Every structure is written in C-alpha cells, then in structure tokens.
Amino acid sequence: MTNPKNPVNPAPFVLWANHGITPPAGYDSFLAYAVATMDTRSLELDGMFSGMENAPSREDFTQAVAAELAALRQKAGAV
Predict the structure, then answer these.
(1) Residue extents of the structural domains in the chain
(2) Residue 39 gets which letter from DSSP?
(3) CA 14 to CA 18: how far, in whole Å?
(4) What is the greatest pairwise CA distance in the chain?
(5) What is the pTM of this model?
(6) pLDDT for 32 beyond 80
(7) How far apart are CA 17 and CA 4, in angstroms?
(8) Cα(56)–Cα(78) distance, rounded to whole angstroms?
(9) Are the beta carbons of 24 and 47 closer than 8 angstroms?
C-alpha cells in the first residue's frame, strides 16, 4: 500500500487530491495559485539574468510561468 504522506511516493497526487482542503478563492487549484502568486522579486534581486543584454523582466517571468501552466493544462486535456 502506498503512503500519501511519503513525498517519494511515485504517484502521490491521486492520494493527496483528497486531502480535504481547497485552493484559495478565485483559483481552481493550488498550482494555479502558486503560479499567480509566484515571487519574481527574488529572481530580479538575485541578478540571475543581470549579465544578459535583454534581461527578462518580472512580468516576463510571470507570463512564462502562466504559459507553462496553460500548456500543461492543454496537454492534460483540462482546457
């Protein structure tokens, strides 16, 4: 039997999906909430791209992550 509290469980989502808590209001999943509230300030402060000629902005990061989530949802047939 698999253990839903074991993070190395190869397929924990199925078991964890019934955890009984819901995402914050306005979000259909915790992943959508995480994407929408992702901290981009630290990326900028860490200077990850400071040496680049056209360094991405914080808004660029936000849009890239939102696009990745949209692509995952489309691939999963959720859109």
Answers:
(1) 25-76
(2) -
(3) 8
(4) 53
(5) 0.59
(6) yes
(7) 10
(8) 29
(9) no
